[in-house]
Write a structure and sequence with these properties.
By secondary structure, this protein is of the alpha/beta class. It has 2 domains: 86 residues, Leucine Dehydrogenase, chain A, domain 1 (Rossmann fold); 124 residues, NAD(P)-binding Rossmann-like Domain (Rossmann fold, 3-Layer(aba) Sandwich). Helices cover 40% and strands 16% of the residues. The chain contains 10 helices and 11 strands. It has a 6-stranded parallel β-sheet with strand order 1-11-8-7-5-6. Helix 2 crosses helix 10 and helix 6 crosses helix 7. The termini are far apart. The protein binds NADP nicotinamide-adenine-dinucleotide phosphate (NAP). NADP nicotinamide-adenine-dinucleotide phosphate (NAP) binds next to helix 10.
Length: 282
Amino acid sequence: MTAQLIDGNALSRQLRADVAARVTALKAKGITPGLAVILVGDDPASQVYVRNKVKACEDTGMHSVLERYGADMSEAHLLARIEALNNDPGIHGILVQMPLPKHLDPHKVIEAVSTAKDVDGYSVQSAGELMTGLPGFRSCTPYGCMKMLESIRYDLKGKNAVVIGRSNTVGKPMAMMLLQQNATVTICHSGTKDLKAMTLQADVIVAAVGKRNVLTADMVKPGAVVLDVGMNRDDEGRLCGDVDFERVKEVAGYITPVPGGVGPMTITMLMVNTLESAERTK
Ligand code: NAP
């Protein structure tokens, strides 16, 4: 079997076209959706992510502000900048790029962002809204994964889903979103004794670990849907995911590539969240 590809670039293009149309409609009412991105330090990967987010804003007609600060920025200064953006009516979403330099407390920084502008969905309130099924900002990466499942009209009801990874930003919200769609969800992590035994039961596998080849072909049930969140480098320095793509695609029913899979969808859902934040101010 050769799996069908879920193309994150193609799906993103469709969704961003819809975002751009809604941005135009909002602008006609005098509101331009605005995203502020704060980057502290000079982490090379973060610089790329931030650049892509700003470009996506420009492409969809949104306003964006990129604030860059040195790695020695004080916490007080960062919190003051967030407060200023919280009070800026031209900004509807605030994103502080993670990871932060060690001396800055990510929890404190995330909680400083107004809930109304938490377009990353990282705050305790946003997590609680997801947990309780209330409307709110959904964490962009798992939200993008759900859109990918929706794009193949996948009905999760009664399906077994395995999420590998339990971070607050990807693994846990992913599991919660799958649960909300009535999947039976198992969350695996570094303490899981027999990962293969878990994944072999799964109709849907989401790999969100950050290690190459965490998921190999012998761990996948024929026909399963495999979503690869991981971003790693192979021996030649090329971007790759957590999944042994070449072999797993011969077993899975659907699979996402890296690059061109979950990555672009994450940015797309950030655009959606920012747009919806602005739409709420109508
Ligand atoms: P993270 O915070 O480091 O979490 C990784 C998780 O993997 C942890 O829960 C860890 O378990 C688990 N883990 C580690 N080794 C394992 C193993 N051998 N078997 C099973 N589980 C294992 O990472 P993250 O922020 O969730 O990101 C995960 C990956 O996704 C990274 O590669 C990141 O770059 C990528 N990512 C991609 C996007 C995108 O847009 N494509 C967005 C966000 C993240 P413990 O909790 O027990 O330590």
